[in-house]
Each structure stands twice: as structure tokens, then as C-alpha cells.
Design brief:
The structure holds 2 protein chains of 2 kinds. Chain A folds into 2 domains: 5-263, Rossmann fold (3-Layer(aba) Sandwich), CATH 3.40.50.300; 272-340, Alpha-Beta Complex (CBS domain Like). In chain A, 34% of the residues lie in helices and 20% in strands. Chain A has 13 helices and 13 strands. Chain A has a 6-stranded mixed sheet, with helices on both faces. Chain B has one domain (46-237): MetI-like fold, CATH 1.10.3720.10. Helices cover 75% and strands 0% of the residues of chain B. In chain B, helix 3 (35-77) packs across helix 10 and helix 8 packs antiparallel against helix 10. The longest helix of chain B has 43 residues, at 35-77. The chains are: A alpha/beta, B mainly alpha. The A-B interface holds A 72, 74, 94-101, 103, 105, 107-115, 122-123, 126, 155-161, 172, 182 and B 139, 141-152, 155, 160, 163-164, 166, 237, 239, 242-245.
């Protein structure tokens, strides 16, 4: 991997995507802390395809942060290997490896003595980018994370709210077009409303700039929302690694079923949108509750219960009915024969 | 002072018996503070002493800073170094100043070197402590972020730790400077000049105006130096004043 200037000949005017996403793979990665008998992470093997968000989740002490920090060698592996695009991280110089991996964590760690521009420009400066290019990149990223690219550039971290700081933290982790990003409970310290917005904005951002992301959280709802795949860890062992829907539908064992919660059926409804279902024909009589294809099944179900109806009319952006969804198609989805319903 | 006054050269040496010349009533009665005499004699009596005083202080704080700063950097990476160095610095700090100057005279003589050895010794404890406290006070999350982004140890020190330690370091420099300005008056005891010289002379001669004027000048110098250091700190650490609007 070479993240130096020459890797980006097109400069900041190129698409914000820039460098491609990387394939990240753990190969029996193990970490035993000195003086401990049981490993913190034990023979972890999993692969994150390029451009996907992989959530590591588990109770505290399950080894999720340890596993993540092995990737940029903040924690050194005891045995096994981690590869990025099939190159072992052991073969790379530590600083070079880290400059190629974005890192976001709960406490953010913005440098209080640096302006937004200098904070975002930290890694580009290490890579020797010219000043104008760093500024252009910082402005571009600020816009991407929803901050003011002019005013906010010269401010210091103390002048921002917690949510805004975390946005700057995300921008900083993307500054050099790193193909891989590690996020350690990134939205854990902000209030629920700001967290929800940060999550939505990050997902939108990720669609525009599909980096490979390892995302650590202990919040199962966040995991379901953010992850393309979820890896559930317990006492350093990988218990289940699958899509949110499959984990909710078929928990590997009682521990996972417990962990995802007794309401896993309802949680699954959050994963699905009305547009994911086979729609019935548009009704002749469009009366009753309406929703768009983007509405989650959970919200749709709630609407039906509130309105006392057994059917919901799906409308397009102009409000024209395009189909219907019946209550029993939702109940069938979370029941045992769900596969028949999904489109 | 009138031109060609015959006693001028003697007065510059610091007269044992004050030479009042064609003095005002205030001077003849040896008043607490004769402003017109102070103004008339400022250039001749005080300016050279003021310059010497600034020089003594600047040199002491400068050398003291280099020593203490280096020691703090060493202690920052080698934990065992802190305690012995702190004990040494505290020991030097507790030596009574007059005794310290006197002790040095047989070794380094009645020289600026003697004065500086003592003055430098007094700055080290405060500068060492403050620099180390500043470095240790750097938020752990900033350090982790720097490490995770691939900064080397040296880059973390230069770009993150030292800038963030700057307010504490500057606080130490301010205290050391003000203390040294005050202590340097005692250095006149071994004849190296400074604002202590007119004070010692006035103690011997009983000339109150000279005594008060030199004392006030030392206080003024301390205040001005402190204000300049505050300005310097604001220039070096503009982020300290940034707050959420």
C-alpha cells in the first residue's frame, strides 16, 4: 500500500471517494495480554468485503475493541494475522500502516490547539500534501459531513458541540482517502437525537464514499442500523457473523438470542422497508394510512395498529398510490416462513 | 543635574555620603521620594542598573529554561529521572539567597557567573515542575488520536504534547521571571550591578529617594515583564481563548 501523494494524482477535485475500499481479513488473530491465561481475542477469523460496514459487538470484555485495535497495531497480535488487501499488516511500517487507516473513537481526540483545518489536515500534512490541497480537501470534507466549509474551517474544537466535533473527527479520519476506517463506539458520547442524526448522516456519507469500515459498539440497535454484517463476540470468541437480518431471524445460540433481545422480531422490522416487500395492487379506494417505500416495516406496523387498519397504502413521492401492504404479509415475514414473502 | 558638576564621577560609584548638589528642599530634608530628583537622575543612576538587571534576569531565566526543559523532556520519557532531579532542584531552591551568593564567591569570585549560578538554580524547580506537569496534562485522547494517525513519538511531542503543554510552561516562565527579577536585587551583594546596587547604596547612605525609586523600578520591571509574557502566551496559544459561541 502506498498512501503517498502520488497515489492520488487527481487531487482534491476528484470524487470524494478517491482511493478504493480495501478488503480486510482476520486470520486466526489472537491476543493474549501478558499475565492473563485466557486470550482477549481468540482465533478470530472473518473477512470484511471492500466497502462494507462490519460491526463488532459484544458485552464489555468480549474483545471487540481489542480486535479492532489489532488492525492498526495499537495492540500487537500474539498470533495469527490481519491482512488488508491480502497484505499482512506485519509487513508494513507501523506509522505508514496507521496513516492509511482512518480512526474514530468515542472521545474523538481532536487536537484542542489546532483549527478544524489543521485537525483534518493532520495525516495529509504527514504525507506531504501541499497547503492548498489540504485546505481544499478540508473544505470538501466539512461540506460532506454537514459543517460550514468556510466559517468552521478556522474554529477551534472548543467552539463546537459534541456532535459537531464527532463530525470533524469523521472528516479527519477520511482526510487522506484512507480505504479503511476503524470506528470505536464513535457516537457513544452524544445525546440520542444527535446520535440518530450522526448515524443517518454517516450512512448517507458511506453510500457516497464506500470505505471499508470496522465499527465497534455495544448497542445492538446501532449495530443493526449501521452494519452490513455483524460479528458478535463473547469472551474473545466469534459467536456469529452474519447480516443483521439473519442474526435476528436465526440467532446461532441462546447467547445471541439473549443479546439481540426478546423483541428481535420487532427489531427485524426495522431492517426491512416497505419497498422490500411484494406489494399488492394499488387499491381502488385509496383511503386509510399511507407510507412510502422507504418506510420501515416497524413504522408501517405501528401506523396500522394506531389507525386500526389491516392494510397500508404505499404511495410514491407525489402521493400517488403504487400498491398496498397487508398486515398479514408483515406477520408472515417475522414468522417461520418468511422467505416466501421477501421479494 | 547641572553640567560640569564636580562630584558626578563619585556619585556614579555610589557615594557613602550622598552628594546633594544644588538640591531641592525635598532632597536636603531626605524626603521619602523626591520625584524631580528621580526624573533628573533617571538616565545616569537608574538606566544602566535597569539594563544590567534585565540582562541578569534574562540570562538566568534563559539558561534555567534550557536546563529545566531538557530535564523535563528526559523525565517525560524516563520515569525514574523525575524524583532525583526534583529533589536536586528543590534542594537548590531552599538555599537562602544571600548564603548562596556568599558561598559561590570563593569558587567563582565576585562575578556575574556567581550571580547567574545562584539565579539559574532558583528558576529550575518551578520551570521543571511546570513543564513536566504540562506534558503530563496533555489529554490522553489527543495522544491516542495522534498515535492512531501514525505520528511518530517525536512528531507527537512537537506537534501535540508541547503545544498543549505551552500554557503550563508559560505559567512557569512567568513565575520564574518575576521571582528572578526580585532575587536579582540581592545579587548586587556580590557587586554585579542591577537595581540592587542603588538599593544597597541607599541602605548605607540613608538616601530614601534612591532606595524607594530602585525598589519601585524593580516592581515595575516585574509587572512589565509579566505583561509581556502574557502577550507572548496569547500569541503562541490563541486556542486557549476559543470557546463555544
Amino acid at each position: 500500500m502506498n498512501y503517498s501523494d502520488t497515489a492520488h494524482p487527481t487531487g482534491p477535485s476528484a470524487s470524494p471517494g478517491g482511493a478504493a475500499a480495501a478488503v480486510l481479513a482476520f486470520h486466526e488473530a489472537t491476543k493474549v495480554y501478558p499475565g492473563r491465561r485466557t486470550p482477549a481475542v481468540s482465533n478470530l477469523t472473518l473477512e470484511v468485503p471492500a466497502g462494507e460496514i462490519c460491526v463488532l459487538i459484544g458485552p464489555s470484555g468480549s474483545g471487540k475493541t481489542t480486535a479492532m485495535q489489532m488492525v492498526n497495531r495499537l495492540i500487537s497480535m500474539t498470533s495469527g494475522d490481519v491482512t488488508i488487501d491480502e497484505r499482512s499488516i506485519r509487513d508494513l511500517d507501523e506509522t505508514e500502516l496507521r496513516r492509511g487507516i482512518g480512526y474514530v473513537f468515542q472521545q474523538i481526540g481532536l487536537f484542542p490547539h489546532m483549527t478544524t483545518e489543521d485537525n483534518i489536515g493532520t495525516v495529509p500534512r504527514l504525507l506531504g500534501w501541499p497547503k492548498e490541497r489540504i485546505r481544499a480537501r478540508a473544505k470538501e470534507l466539512l461540506e460532506l459531513v454537514g459543517l460550514d466549509p468556510d466559517d468552521d474551517l478556522r474554529r477551534y474544537p472548543a467552539e463546537f458541540s459534541g456532535g459537531q466535533r464527532q463530525r470533524i473527527g469523521v472528516a479527519r479520519a477520511m482526510a487522506a482517502d484512507q480505504p479503511l476506517m476503524l470506528m470505536d463506539e464513535p457516537f457513544g458520547a452524544v445525546d440520542p437525537i444527535a446520535r440518530d442524526r450522526l448515524q443517518d448522516d454517516f450512512l448517507r456519507l458511506h453510500k457516497e464514499v464506500p470505505k471499508t469500515v470496522v465499527f465497534v459498539t455495544h448497542d445492538i440497535d446501532e449495530a443493526i442500523k449501521m452494519g452490513h454484517r455483524i460479528a458478535i463476540l463473547r469472551d474473545g470468541e466469534l459467536v456469529q457473523f452474519d447480516t443483521p437480518d439473519n442474526i435476528l431471524a436465526e440467532p446461532a445460540n441462546d447467547f445471541v438470542a439473549d443479546f439481540v433481545g426478546a423483541d428481535r422480531g420487532l427489531k427485524r422490522l426495522n431492517v426491512w422497508r416497505l419497498g422490500d416487500l411484494e406489494l399488492g395492487p394499488p387499491p381502488d379506494d385509496p383511503a386509510g394510512p399511507t407510507a412510502t417505500e422507504e418506510t420501515s416495516l416497524r413504522d408501517a406496523l405501528s401506523l396500522m395498529l394506531v389507525e386500526g387498519k389491516e392494510r397500508i397504502v404505499v404511495v410514491d413521492e407525489e402521493g400517488r398510490p403504487t400498491g398496498t401492504v397487508a398486515l398479514d404479509s408483515i406477520t408472515r415475514l417475522i414468522g417461520p416462513d418468511e422467505k416466501a414473502v421477501a421479494r | 543635574m547641572l553640567a560640569g558638576a564636580p562630584a558626578a564621577p563619585i556619585a556614579q560609584q555610589g557615594p557613602v555620603i550622598p552628594h546633594f548638589e544644588r538640591a531641592s528642599d525635598c532632597i536636603r530634608e531626605n524626603g521619602q521620594f523626591c520625584f524631580s530628583w528621580f526624573v533628573d537622575n533617571f538616565d545616569r543612576v537608574f538606566v544602566p542598573r535597569l539594563v544590567e538587571h534585565i540582562w541578569l534576569t534574562g540570562l538566568a531565566v534563559g539558561i534555567g529554561f534550557v536546563i529545566a526543559f531538557t530535564a523535563a523532556l528526559v523525565a517525560h520519557s524516563l520515569d525514574w529521572f523525575e524524583t532525583p532531579f526534583a529533589i536536586l532542584a528543590a534542594f537548590l531552591y531552599t538555599i537562602p539567597s544571600l548564603a548562596f551568593f556568599q558561598l559561590l564567591v570563593p569558587i567563582t569570585g565576585l562575578t556575574v557567573t556567581s550571580a547567574e549560578i545562584a539565579l539559574v538554580s532558583y528558576t529550575i524547580l518551578i520551570l521543571f515542575r511546570n513543564t513536566l506537569t504540562g506534558l503530563r496534562g496533555v489529554p490522553e485522547d489527543a495522544r491516542l488520536a495522534a498515535r492512531a494517525m501514525g505520528l511518530t513519538k517525536g512528531q507527537i511531542l512537537r506537534r501535540v504534547e508541547l503545544p498543549l503543554a505551552l500554557p503550563a510552561i508559560m505559567a512557569g516562565v512567568r513565575i520564574a521571571t518575576v521571582t528572578t527579577i526580585s532575587l536579582a536585587t540581592v545579587a548586587a551583594f556580590i557587586g554585579v550591578g542591577g537595581l540592587g546596587q542603588p538599593i544597597f547604596n541607599a541602605i548605607q547612605s540613608g538616601f530614601k529617594t534612591q532606595f524607594v525609586a530602585a525598589g519601585l523600578l524593580a516592581v515595575a520591571l516585574a509587572l512589565v515583564a509579566d505583561a509581556l509574557l502574557v502577550l507572548l502566551q496569547r500569541m503562541l496559544a490563541p486556542w486557549m481563548r476559543a470557546r463555544r459561541a
